[in-house]
């Protein structure tokens, strides 16, 4: 799953990594080292099919405006079901987005406790996580981050991971005219898992009120 991540790259670095024309409504990004669900996060999306790509804020919690009062508010959507689930398929076809992140946190059991790890790219470049969004009942956008079975070294930590896309897949993922599931499957690729690395970090990350760069610092030893 993906339940906590960090984003500290400045806007120019994100724009350069995306390599697509981008308008920003929040170019002065504040570094965040412990982004939790139920908060505003940055996402790249189109507000309508013919509009430009924008980097703006969306709520991390997917709750479409048409859903019932007791409907769930997931923060993740599984790639295995996102295209066919009634709850997600409309957003998957028409409202896809990218969530920038420098890495995400996951926990693994160690001696009866849970040890957090920070997973990130080995070259320090931002990750682009596949997401979907929908207008919430309050008219604000809400999103879920897609997850897939863990690959590479990420399997050492958890059985699932966020779907991070490779550079060539960013434009197709954001293309509003690409709606066919099979075409998308053949076009969109995840980041090479060999580019992912990880290390154990302080349990201070367990509390979402903690938010500083020490949270991503490697522990000297377990």
What's the short version?
The chain has 222 residues and is mainly beta. It has helices at residues 11-18, 89-94, 170-174, 181-187; strands at residues 5-7, 23-24, 32-35, 40-46, 53-60, 76-78, 96-101, 103-110, 113-121, 127-135, 141-149, 160-162, 196-200.
Query: Which fold name fills CATH's third level, the topology?
Result: hypothetical protein yedk fold
Please bin the fraction of helical residues: 10-25%
Overall spatial form? globular
The overall pLDDT, averaged over residues, is 94
Biggest beta sheet attributes = 8 strands, mixed
The assigned structural class equals mainly beta
How many separate structural domains?
Answer: 1
**CATH-level-2 architecture:** Alpha-Beta Complex
Could you state the order of secondary-structure elements as H and E? EHEEEEEHEEEEEEHHE
Protein name: Abasic site processing protein
InterPro entries: SRAP, SRAP-like
Keywords: Covalent protein-DNA linkage, DNA damage, DNA-binding, Hydrolase, Lyase, Protease
Family: Belongs to the SOS response-associated peptidase family.
Textual characterization of the structure:
The chain has 222 residues and is mainly beta. The protein has one domain: hypothetical protein yedk fold, CATH 3.90.1680.10. It contains 4 helices and 13 strands. It has helices at residues 11-18, 89-94, 170-174, 181-187; strands at residues 5-7, 23-24, 32-35, 40-46, 53-60, 76-78, 96-101, 103-110, 113-121, 127-135, 141-149, 160-162, 196-200. Strands 2, 4, 5, 6, 7, 10, 11 and 12 form an 8-stranded mixed beta sheet that branches. Strands 3-1-8-9-13 form a 5-stranded antiparallel beta sheet, with no helix packed on it. It is globular, with a radius of gyration of 17 Å. The model has no long low-confidence stretch (mean pLDDT 94).
């Amino acid at each position: 799953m993906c339940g906590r991540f960090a984003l500290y790259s400045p806007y120019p670095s994100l724009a350069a990594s995306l390599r697509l024309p981008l308008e920003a409504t929040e170019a002065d990004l504040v570094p965040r080292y412990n982004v939790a669900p139920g908060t505003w996060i940055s996402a790249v999306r189109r507000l309508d099919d013919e509009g430009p790509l924008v980097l703006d804020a969306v709520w991390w919690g997917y709750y479409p405006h048409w859903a019932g009062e007791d409907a769930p508010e997931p923060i993740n959507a599984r790639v295995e079901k996102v295209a066919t689930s009634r709850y997600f398929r409309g957003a998957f076809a028409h409202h896809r987005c990218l969530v920038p992140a420098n890495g995400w946190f996951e926990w693994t059991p160690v001696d009866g406790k849970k040890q957090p790890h920070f997973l990130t790219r080995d070259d320090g470049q931002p990750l682009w996580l596949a997401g979907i969004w929908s207008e919430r009942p309050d008219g604000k956008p809400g999103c879920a981050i897609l997850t897939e079975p863990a690959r590479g070294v990420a399997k050492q930590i958890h059985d699932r991971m966020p779907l991070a896309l490779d550079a060539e897949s960013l434009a197709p993922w954001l293309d509003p005219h690409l709606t066919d599931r099979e075409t998308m499957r053949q076009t969109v690729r995840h980041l090479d898992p060999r580019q992912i690395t990880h290390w154990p970090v302080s349990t201070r990350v367990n509390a979402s009120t903690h938010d500083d760069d020490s949270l991503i610092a490697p522990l000297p030893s377990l």
